[in-house]
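Please fill in the sequence for the structure shown.

STRUCTURE ENCODING:
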């Protein structure tokens, strides 16, 4: 599994990386602009990400803006939701839910920080990213 962790806070970033390193290659972006650049580079290299862990509160472009841009790129490429990158939004807020009214701009999961390894692995299994 190839992952991109988009997180500006060092401790959270390293914690998620520690959990995901077990399952494959993890790249890091510390802001929204870097995230979009990394996503585009993965597409250009023909080695796309399977998972993006995307913090909502980022400097510059926030997580929702990054999500919207990634989904727009996928739509332009003709990708369906079945073969699009899985995006898990991370937040310190406890009352988040997936709102399907966002259509193609919807994320796949919300995870509350601090991330618990067991919860992350459960979500990875649900989305068939790991067994």
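FILLED IN BY: designer on duty
SEQUENCE:
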């Amino acid at each position: 599994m190839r992952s991109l962790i988009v997180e500006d806070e060092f401790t959270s970033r390293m914690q998620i990386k520690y959990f995901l390193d077990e399952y494959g290659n993890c790249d890091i972006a510390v802001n929204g602009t870097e995230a979009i650049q990394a996503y585009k580079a993965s597409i250009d290299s023909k080695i796309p990400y399977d998972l993006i862990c995307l913090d909502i509160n980022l400097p510059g472009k926030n997580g929702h803006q990054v999500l919207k841009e990634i989904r727009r790129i996928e739509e332009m490429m003709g990708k369906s939701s079945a073969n699009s990158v899985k995006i898990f939004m991370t937040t310190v807020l406890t009352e988040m839910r997936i709102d399907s009214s966002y259509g193609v701009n919807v994320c796949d999961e919300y995870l509350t920080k601090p991330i618990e390894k067991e919860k992350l692995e459960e979500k990875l299994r649900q989305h068939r990213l790991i067994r």
